[in-house]
Design a protein that fits this description.
The chain folds into 3 domains: about 5-45 and about 265-339, conserved putative lor/sdh protein from methanococcus maripaludis s2 fold (Beta Barrel), CATH 2.40.420.20; about 50-60 and about 190-260, Elongation Factor Tu (Ef-tu), domain 3, CATH 2.40.30; about 60-185, RNA polymerase II/Efflux pump adaptor protein, barrel-sandwich hybrid domain (OB fold (Dihydrolipoamide Acetyltransferase, E2P)), CATH 2.40.50.100. It starts with a helix and ends with a strand. The strands form 4 sheets. The protein has a 6-stranded antiparallel β-barrel with strand order 2-11-14-13-12-15. β16 (about 275-280) and β17 form a beta hairpin. By secondary structure, it is an alpha+beta fold. Helix content is about 25%, strand content about 45%. The protein is built from 3 helices and 21 strands. The protein has helices spanning about 5-30, 95-120, 125-150, and strands at about 30-40, 40-55, 60-65, 70, 80, 85-90, 155, 160-165, 175, 180-185, 190-195, 210-215, 220-230, 240-245, 255-270, 275-280, 280-290, 295-305, 310-315, 320, 335-339.
Length: about 350
């Protein structure tokens, strides 16, 4: 693949050859009436574009606390769910069996305790035997509460109002403790997570408003920095920030956005956008040369600023350029400058 520099050099050589061939002809052409302006040098704030991701402020990775097979999974991807609604149930027979076993043990101990208390009241039993059975009953009740809690974990409910963002499993799959089953996102508040360039992090602070652009949206909107990390990513050289999105903004979790970060002012050369024309893949302008003749220049443009555009290379601040060169203008052709 050829480098851009080689392409520009080749284009310059081609244009130079064409210019030499056309120069004699251009000199004989009649003057072209055009308007010329000086190249402007201005100090403009550089805006750096970076990318971010929309996320729900409330989000949860739903996982199981006990192992088991997914018995029911009544929710579908993208469905809105209310807090407390059942998301899925697990079939954990060993947990249910453990609850039944402990309940049976507790029932037996309570019967023995009733009998021992009756014997004690008639003088045939001892207080020590009663106390021992009371301790066993208390311990078994604690074990039963633990087993019932584990059984309760087989029914998983929505922790808040939200939407099913991702499903990692289906009914019949095995659920291991801690493994994500569903991604559950809130639907009330949203934020944008973005890695800001480390070089631009110093002037930024919580409360700073940045412009946001979403592909396909009619206009940009602003979001304020709600959280800003004090540590930079050693690999990407970025600082993580979270931007609060105002209520009513039409965003959705996982959406890609462009974030525009203001930088330090820089001195740039600006020309009217209409002064730049394309020749194949190359950009060119016409300057006012010696004896008021058109002089063709290859340029490289940068960012646009309204009806003006930055010139990265190819011009100097001392140059004067043709504002709207006609398509028939040739290198070396005489110019009739409009005041």
């Amino acid at each position: 693949m050829k480098s851009p520099r080689l392409v520009l050099l080749a284009g310059a050589l081609v244009l130079a050859g064409c210019a030499r061939r056309e120069s004699r002809t251009a000199e004989t052409l009649p003057p072209v009436r055009v308007q010329a302006v000086a190249v402007q040098r201005e100090a403009l704030s550089v805006v750096v574009e970076t990318s971010g991701t929309v996320r729900a402020v409330q989000r949860a990775a739903i996982a199981a606390k006990v192992p088991g097979t997914i018995a029911t999974l009544p929710v579908a991807l993208g469905r809105h769910v209310s807090a407390g609604e059942i998301l899925l149930t697990l079939s954990a027979d060993e947990v249910a069996a453990r609850v039944a076993q402990v309940r049976a043990q507790l029932t037996q101990i309570e019967r023995e305790l009733v009998r021992e208390r009756t014997l004690q009241s008639s003088g045939a039993g001892t207080a020590e035997a009663v106390k021992s059975l009371e301790d066993r009953a208390a311990q078994t009740q604690a074990v039963l509460r633990e087993a019932e809690a584990l059984l309760g974990y087989t029914t998983i409910r929505a922790p808040f109002d939200g939407v099913i963002a991702r499903k990692y499993v289906e009914a019949g799959d095995y659920a291991a403790p801690g493994a994500p089953l569903l991604q559950f996102d809130g639907r009330e508040a949203f934020e944008i997570e973005v890695g800001l360039p480390e070089s631009l992090g110093a002037p930024l602070a919580v409360g700073t408003a940045l412009e946001i652009e979403i592909a396909g949206a009619p206009a940009r909107f602003r979001a304020t920095i709600a959280e800003l990390s004090s540590a930079a990513d050693a690999t990407a050289r970025t600082i993580t920030a979270k931007l609060a999105v105002s209520r009513g903004a039409k965003v959705r979790p996982g959406q890609f956005v462009r974030v525009f970060v203001p930088g330090a002012p820089a001195s740039v050369l600006l020309v009217p956008t209409g002064a730049v024309s394309l020749f194949g893949q190359m950009e060119r302008v016409f300057t006012v040369g010696e004896n008021h003749r058109a002089s063709l220049r290859l340029v490289k443009t940068g960012a646009g600023h309204g009806d003006r555009i930055e010139i990265v290379s190819g011009l100097d601040a001392t140059d004067r350029i043709v504002v709207a060169p006609p398509a028939t203008l040739r290198d070396g052709q005489p110019l009739d400058l409009v005041p």
